[in-house]
Specification:
By secondary structure, the protein is mainly α. The chain has 4 helices and no strands.
């Protein structure tokens, strides 16, 4: 289910909409995941992204760096 929230979060960011709900869900659901598990979910999300794969990856990678590496 996390990959759906990742996709919704990326779409909201690309469309410059408020993504605070999606970000809250991502932070809550991924807090117990290892870095490897999170990267695997990002990889799946990017592969099946409904928008540009490159843009989706950049947004999700930025989120990962901000949240997981703090």
């Amino acid at each position: 289910m996390t990959h759906l929230i990742l996709d919704f979060f990326a779409k909201a960011m690309l469309e410059e909409r408020d993504s605070s709900i999606e970000q809250y869900l991502l932070n809550f659901w991924s807090k117990d995941l290892s870095l490897r598990d999170t990267v695997d979910r990002i990889q799946t999300t990017v592969r099946f992204a409904s928008s540009s794969q490159a843009d989706t990856f950049i947004i999700l990678f930025t989120w990962l760096v901000e949240q997981k590496l703090q």
